[in-house]
Every structure is written in C-alpha cells, then in structure tokens.
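Handout, section 4.2: multi-component inputs.
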Amino acid sequence: MAGDPVEVFDKAFELVARLGEAMRQALAERGLTASRAEVIYVLARDGALVQRELAQALGCTPRHVTGLVDTLQHGGLVERRPHPTDRRAISVALTERGADTARWMTDSRRQSARAILGDLPDADLAAFVRVADRILNEVVPATENPA
Amino acid sequence: MAGDPVEVFDKAFELVARLGEAMRQALAERGLTASRAEVIYVLARDGALVQRELAQALGCTPRHVTGLVDTLQHGGLVERRPHPTDRRAISVALTERGADTARWMTDSRRQSARAILGDLPDADLAAFVRVADRILNEVVPATENPA
DNA sequence: ATCAATAATGAAGTGACTTCACTATGTACT
DNA sequence: AGTACATAGTGAAGTCACTTCATTATTGAT
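Output:
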C-alpha cells in the first residue's frame, strides 16, 4: 500500500508519544528529566548563560529556570558563578560531569541513529526528512529565533 | 545531501518536541489536555469502559483515572454509570458532547493531514512510514497489547 | 460464614510550570 | 548626586499530570 497522508500523520503522532516516552525513560535512568536534559543540551551548545538567557532558550519563565538550575547544581552537573560585569546576573555553566553528560547525550543519540537506521536506503531517509520538514513548517509555531 | 541517519533521528526528536507542543495547544483551545483527550479517544474507540480498564488502556494508575474522569464529567464530556453486573465498578461512557469532541479530533486530524501532506509524492509518504516504523520497532517499549 | 482479591477513592507527595510580589542592581535623565 | 524606571533572580502559592499508600465497598470462592 502506498502512502496515505492520514497514515503518515498517525505515525508522526505515534512517534511523538512513544519516542517521547522512550526518551524520558532513557534520561530517567541517568537521573535526568526532559527539562533538565534540555538545560544541559543548551549549555553545551551555547556555553555559559545567564539564567534569563537560559529561560529564553528553553521557552519557559525565568522563575522556572531557578528551580531547574537548583536541582542540576545540587546534582553537580552545573555551577552558578557571579556574572563578571553585571552583579544582578548569575552565570550558569556546565561542570565536568555536566559536560560528560552532554557528550553522553550526543554520542548515544548518534550511536542509536546509526544502529537503527544505518541500513536503510538513503532515499528513504531523505524522504523522511522531507516529510518531517513539511509537517514542521506547516503545523508548528516554532520557538522563534529569526534574523 | 542524501539521508544521514543522525539527521533523521534529530528530525524525529524535533517532531516529538514541536508537534507534541502544537497538539497540546490545539487541545488547550478546546479546554482539553493530552491525557483527557486520550480518555476521549479511547472511549470513542472501545466504547464504555470501567475505570480499571481505562487505566490499562491509558497506561496509568486507576487512581489517576478517577481524577481524569472527574474533570471530564464535570465538563460534560463523559458520564459515570453503575456497572450492570458488578456493583464495585463504574462504567464510563462518552456523552453526546464527548462523542462530538471525538469526531472533531478525528476530522481535524484527517483534514490537516490532507492539507499538509496531500501534494507530496506517494513514495515519500511510504518511505516516511517505513522509517518511522523502524524507529518505533527498534527504540520503543510499546504499551503491550499482543495476541 | 469467612477471607482473600478487586474497584474506586481520600490523603499526601513529586515534577513541570505559572503568576505575583519583593530585593538588589543597573541605567538614564535631570 | 538624586530620582525613577527597567532588569535579574527568588520566595510564595497555585495548577496539572501522575504516583504510592491507606481505606471502603464488593465479589468470589472455600
């Protein structure tokens, strides 16, 4: 049977539900939650940030960042430092352990990707990306970060 | 650029994050949350259920179902009835409004699917489903409901 | 008649997140 | 300098998803 748009949509939602759940579970085994993992991801990508910037990057309130960073700091993944020029602000950076965790996230994602999809034809993978992009562009608001 | 497994994985996760968010938002406009919507979906699919069965279908605790049904009942989407043969149990069924909501969910999903993906080549859609199935089968635990 | 399994619910707790009020600073304007 | 407003972070309190641990009705099976 060829491709039915509705079937594709259903698969996409199934992905949302089940892949999301699998991710949550994998993170939980490392003592992380999706939100906390995202903090780590962003800090690894952008370097040390002030909490307000972190809130923007995560799309949540600054207040919530306070709590997230509290927990992460308590777990030794992140550290707070006084901002060099602005005494109101607090700079948040990954610790060694935090950086290790970030590497683990990237590596295991890459490994899984290759193990699971490595033998599929390039054409299929490219088509998946095309369809996914279409859905993403049409359906989704996207945390705006334009020009 | 052809298909890179890692890029595909990343897209899949982006779908998880952004499509999930879009769904939550669409539901919120109708006063629903993902969990409550799932109750409606399951009841529409399986007919009236006892709360314990509902809990199994949703993969959550019976205790949580109590609360979900409370809210839905209060909103007039669902009704509780004494179970005909087992006086411990409570049967939960959709009301007219609940059934309408279920129809809305199905219809809008179908409409969006056609509007967004209708013009893509069948081959792409079929490839998407193949790749998604691969991910689903390999990565995911799946709420077991086998033979 | 009795006793263990079962259906639902109260009580209390966790994690994600919010809004609102408040403190400490930074900035700008006179 | 002096006043006034904006900004960074946090305490307090609340919502929603979801849990575990009693406790109360029943049921079913001996």
